[in-house]
Design a protein that fits this description.
By secondary structure, the protein is of the alpha+beta class. It has one domain: Cupin (Jelly Rolls, Sandwich), CATH 2.60.120.650. Helix content is 28%, strand content 24%. The strands form 3 sheets. Strands 2-3-12-9-14-7-6 form a 7-stranded mixed beta sheet, with no helix packed on it. Helix 1 links the parallel strand 2 and strand 3. It starts with a strand and ends with a helix.
Length: 292
C-alpha cells in the first residue's frame, strides 16, 4: 500500500473546501465542525442507554462475510442498552452500523446541525450511528449508495484506511459487491501481500480519528476502520450533485445488490467461482499495467 496522511485542518472556509476537497474528491479531516454542537459534550454511553436502551439492534462480529452471505446480514440481535453496557465493560469485537437512532429518539436531532455551507444534498431522513467495541473492525468496503459522507467521531479513537473508488481492482473487489476479498485487519503491522500482491500498488490514505474529528469521505471511497477504543460516530450522507453519480448509486442499491443476492441463493458455487476468477483477473491486469 502506498499511503499518505489525510489533510487535517481546524477550520476551513466553504470556498476552500469545495475547491480543494469536494470537487477533486479528496478526503479531509476537519476539527471544529462538531465542537459547536451540543452533541460534542452531551452524547455518551449513559445518555444513549437512557433514551434508546430498549431498542433492539443488529450486531456484527469481526468475521468477514463469506461468498454466500448477503451483505449487511446481522450476526445477532440484542437491546441497544445491553450492547452498550458490554462495550463499556471492555474489549468487544461487536459493532453496530447504519443504526438510525434518530427514528427512535427524534429529539436528539437538535443536538447537531447540518453543515450545508460545505455541501448540499444531505439525506436528512437518514443520519446514521456507528458503534464499536474496542478491537472491533469494519472490513474494507465502499458505501453502496455512493454518497458523500461527513463522519464525525465521538468517544474513543478509530484507525481509518481510505482509497479512491478507482483503486477497486488493486484492492481485490468482489464483482457485484461492495466488499474486498482481502482482509485488511491489522494492515499497519502485517498484510498478506503474498496472496494479494496488487494491494502494493494501491494509493490511499490513513488517519486516526479522535473525539470531535469530522472526516469527509468523498463518494465511493473504500474504507476500513479499526476501533482502537470503544467509540461511536455519526455519518451524515449527501447525494452526489451530478446525475451520473446518483444513478450509479440507485443501480447499486436496487440492481446490483438484488442480482447478487439472487445468484447467491440460486447458483452459489458457480457464482462464487465466477466472481473469484474475475477478482484475480482484474488484479493481474493492474499489475501488468504497472510493469509495462
Amino acid at each position: 500500500m502506498q499511503l499518505q496522511a489525510i489533510d487535517t485542518v481546524d477550520h476551513i472556509s466553504p470556498e476552500t473546501f469545495k475547491e480543494n476537497y469536494y470537487r477533486p474528491m479528496k478526503p479531509l479531516v476537519i476539527k471544529d465542525v462538531a465542537k459547536s454542537w451540543p452533541a460534542y459534550t452531551k452524547w455518551n454511553w449513559d445518555y444513549f442507554i437512557d433514551i434508546v436502551g430498549q431498542t433492539e439492534v443488529g450486531v456484527y462480529n469481526n468475521v468477514k462475510s463469506d461468498a454466500y452471505t448477503p451483505i449487511n446480514t446481522a450476526d445477532a440481535y440484542m437491546k441497544f442498552g445491553d450492547y452498550l453496557r458490554k462495550v463499556k465493560a471492555g474489549p468487544l469485537d461487536l459493532r453496530i452500523f447504519l443504526f438510525n437512532i434518530f427514528q427512535h429518539a427524534p429529539q436528539i436531532t437538535a443536538d447537531f446541525t447540518w453543515p450545508e455551507e460545505l455541501m448540499r444534498g444531505f439525506v436528512k431522513k437518514y443520519p446514521m450511528l456507528f458503534v464499536g467495541g474496542q478491537g472491533s473492525i469494519t472490513h474494507m468496503h465502499f458505501d453502496i449508495d455512493l454518497s458523500h459522507i461527513l463522519h464525525t467521531q465521538f468517544v474513543g479513537r478509530k484507525r481509518v484506511l481510505l482509497f479512491p473508488y478507482e483503486e477497486k481492482s488493486k484492492l481485490y473487489r468482489k464483482p457485484w459487491e461492495v466488499l474486498s476479498v482481502a482482509n485488511y485487519a491489522g494492515y499497519h503491522e502485517k498484510f498478506d501481500y503474498e496472496n494479494f500482491p496488487a494491494v502494493k500498488l494501491a494509493r490511499g490514505y490513513e488517519v486516526i480519528l479522535e473525539h470531535g474529528d469530522t472526516l469527509f469521505m468523498p463518494a465511493g471511497y473504500w474504507h476500513h476502520m479499526e476501533y482502537l477504543d470503544a467509540g461511536f460516530a455519526m455519518s451524515l450522507r449527501a447525494l452526489q450533485s451530478g446525475i451520473g453519480g446518483k444513478l450509479h448509486g440507485v443501480w447499486n442499491l436496487f440492481g446490483m445488490r438484488n442480482i447478487d443476492t439472487l445468484m447467491k441463493k440460486t447458483l452459489p458455487k458457480w457464482w462464487y467461482n465466477t466472481k473469484k476468477a474475475k477478482v484475480y483477473e482484474n488484479a493481474a491486469r493492474e499489475m501488468s499495467r504497472n510493469r509495462s
